[in-house]
Amino acid sequence: MINLKKTIVLLTVLLIFSGSQLGLTQHNNETFHWYKGNTHTHTLNSDGDSTPDDVVRWYREHGYHFLVITDHDYFTNVDGLNAVIGAEKQFIVIMGIEASYGVDSRSIHINGLNPKQYILPQKGTGVVETIQKNVNAIRDAGGVPHINHPNYRWSITADDLKQITNCKLFELFSGHPHINNYGGGGMPSVEEIWDDVLSSGKLIYGVAVDDAHAFKEPWNKDVARPGQGWIMVRAKHLTAGALLEAMEEGDFYASTGVEIEKFQVDEDGMSIMIKVSGPTKFRTQFIGKDGKVFKEDISNPATYQFKGNEMYIRAKILDSNGRVAWIQPVKVKDWN
To answer: In three state form, how does the secondary structure of 241-299 look?
Structure first.
């Protein structure tokens, strides 16, 4: 086996608790917390159906710790929302924007998280140049970019993503009903796109989001409802800076409902303890280069021993009710 000590991402044991109680873990004598959040949401200020106040209250009342409002090409001010609905160490609202541009019938949408100034959507001569110009504009504005819903109108391919620089986040799962998360008709799923990009040697982290627009019909599965996908971020503080720094380091997992109780990685392998509620059953896939499933485990904890030929390993946990959690890729060999 190759020497993994210098190339593997070392993570400490992670603890997750339900409800408003936060999981705690120690790392380098510092206390880290786990925060649940959504980074893609719309209000009446673009094409949502509810006021910013109602949108923020929904997330606060449903156990989230942070929310990024990302109206299309519009800055929704969050200062008043934080003053009224936010609470120190409990819940914050983060400024955001969704820069949106159409290129040859394809929709290029890039979220800017916590930018310091307004961002005009940028147009290039093609898909890759348009994405890169918007990523650069978001960085120049002091924000963190993430590339949205690649399979919306089949707009962004793996080859497109491979060419983008200075962007570490993309939407692996979107709760919007028109996003084509699972591919079809000869088109790859978003997960297949992810593995294609990772297998090229480019490291990118997968985010799960709501892309919520419809808060008045939470029962209607044909609309973009809240509560469909989220991330759990491990950070020292509940601040925009700490959360986004952790995300860009891959210190989070994405979920549509599966919760992780403990997760450990060392030079030999990884172990995942899944939080169990009721008679739910689980299946964990350990996935590496070219999307190959190196092991499938129905045990809890699920474990995997590194072989050295995987290039990377990411874990996907599926439950018997169709919910999923995705753990970010751990490198077993150096990335380009």
So the answer is: HHHHHHHHCCCEEEECCCCEEEEEECCCEEEEEECCCCCCCEEEEEECHHHCEEEEECC
- Does the pTM surpass 0.70? The reply is yes
Query: pLDDT tens for residues 235-246?
Result: 999 999 999 999
Query: What SS3 class is residue 175?
Result: coil
* pLDDT tens digits, 2-52: 333 434 443 333 333 333 233 445 555 578 899 999 999 999 999 999 999
pLDDT exceeds cutoff 90 at 335 = no
List phi, psi (to 5°) of 108: -105, 110
How distant, in Å, are the alpha carbons of 41, 64, 71 from that of 48? 8, 19, 8
Question: What does the DSSP assignment read for 191-255?
Answer: HHHHHHHHHTT---EEEEE--B---S-TT-TTS--SSS-EEEEEESSSSHHHHHHHHHTT-EEEE
Nearest to 299 by CA among 272, 280, 279: 272
